[in-house]
Every structure is written in C-alpha cells, then in structure tokens.
Amino acid sequence: MWSKTEMMKITFCTDPVAAWLKKIFGDHPIPQYEVNPRTTEILHHLSERNRVRDRDVHLVIEDLKQKASEYESEAKHLQDLLMESVNFSPANLSSTGSNYLNALVDSAVALETKDTSLASFIPAVNDLTSDLFRTKSKNEEIKLELAKLEKNLTATLVLEKCLREDLKKAELHLSTERAKVDNRLQNMDFLKAKSEEFRCGIRAAEEKLSARGMDTSLSHQSLVALSEKLAELKRQTIPLKKKLESYLDLMPNPSLAQVKIEEAKRELIFLSEKGEGCET
C-alpha cells in the first residue's frame, strides 16, 4: 500500500505528466506504464527538462527570426540605396553578373564574413592562407613522422623475421641437445647400474678372499702404493748413478777412489735390495 505522502505526490504530478505525454504523442495512443511514485517522478522530471529545452529552443528560434528580419531590412536598405544612387538592381544583371554575384555571396558565406567588402574578405583570406600554411607544415611533419615510422616498422619486421629464424634454430638445437641429454641420462643410468653391480661383485670377492685368509698387502691398492714407492726409489738412484759415472771417468787416487766406489756400490746395492723387497 502507498503512503499518504506518495499518493499526494502522484496526484500532484499526474495531471502535468498526462498533459505532457498527450502533447508528445499527439494522435498516437500513449503506451501503458505502471503508475507509481517512481515512474511518476521520472516522467515529471522528463517533462520539466523537455519544457526547459522547448523554452530554450523557442528563444533561439525567436533570436534567429529577429536576425533574419534585420538582415532582410539591411538588404532592402542597400538595394534601395543602389537603386537611388546608380539605378542598379540585381534583377537587371546579366546571367554572368548573377553568377559573379552568387559566387561573391557563396565566398562570403564560406569565409564567414559579415559582408562582401574587401575589408572583410582580405582578413578572412589571410586567415585562410595562414591556416593553409599551418596545415601544409603539419602535413610535412606528419609525412616525416610517417616515414620514420615506416622505417622503424621495416626494421622491426626484419628483426622479427631474424628472431623467428633464430628461435627456430634454437628450438632445433634444443631438441637435438635434449635428445643427447636423454641419451646420456640413459647411459648414466646404465653405468650406475653396472657400477653398483661391479661394486657388489668386488665386495663379494673381497669377502671371499678375506674368508680364505688373503693378506691385505697383496690387494690392488697396496700393490699400486708399492709400485709408486719403487718408482720414487728408482728416481732417487738416478743422481747417484750419474755421480758414480762421473767418478769412473776420472783418474782418481786409487785408494780414495776405491773407498768412494765401495761406498757408492753399497748404497746402490742397498737401494736395489730395498726396491726388490718392495716388488716382492
């Protein structure tokens, strides 16, 4: 149910709204709508805005009519003045003259001058010429900018083409490398499995040898260490051999030379026996 205030609002607005709708639609039937405070308020607001707009339009029309009347009076005055001074009338003009007069009027309208005098035409033409030069200058700037954009666009398209080709090459190279990596991963998995298999076999063999009482000094690692030690001893004997050779080339004191020779022989024998012990 509507409140008393809403009913009063509907009653107050319904008559102006109905009159406005009848004026808008004329002889056509008014569309059906739900009568409630909301729709009544909206239609009342629209009617008020329409009334204000109609009033503004009426004022503009009246102003234009007044200006048209003033222009007609001015034209009539000028025509009478021409008739009185030089007995001239547009009706007396030839077809060429009428064409010139129409062209003059069209030019004044196009240039938006207040009349067809030179004092009005010259500034208007100057303004139009200035606008033309500004437009040409702007067009030149736009052409230069367009040329620059076309150049940049061409360079961008070339760069895009190169990038696409590089991308294809990179994808092909990546595909090849991925295949290689997959193959290496498979080989690595195979080698890991084999390594684990060999490690288990070595561990089992060591356990068997240990159970049979094998000396750890005969293991591969011990033999490698002894071989490296023997090579070091042999390397140490090289200076002694060279030193001994230098003594053999001299004519020494027999007794002193014999002592030195015996010392060198004993040291050489000692190192040789030590090396043979390591090999054993």
From TrEMBL:
The UniProt transmembrane annotation reads none
Query: Is Cell division a UniProt keyword of this protein?
Result: yes
Give the UniProt entry's GO cellular component terms. Answer: cytosol; HAUS complex; microtubule; spindle
Q: Name one GO biological process term.
A: spindle assembly
- Where is it mostly found? cytoplasm
According to its UniProt record, where is this protein located?
Cytoplasm, Cytoskeleton, Spindle
Keywords attached to this Swiss-Prot or TrEMBL record, sorted alphabetically, are: Cell cycle, Cell division, Coiled coil, Cytoplasm, Cytoskeleton, Microtubule, Mitosis
Q: Which family does it belong to?
A: Belongs to the HAUS1 family.
Task: Name the source's superkingdom.
Answer: Eukaryota
Name of the protein described by the UniProt record: HAUS augmin-like complex subunit 1 isoform X4
Does this UniProt record's set of keywords contain Nucleus? no
Q: Sorted alphabetically, which InterPro entries does this protein's record hold?
A: HAUS1
Q: Which Pfam families match?
A: HAUS1 (PF25762)
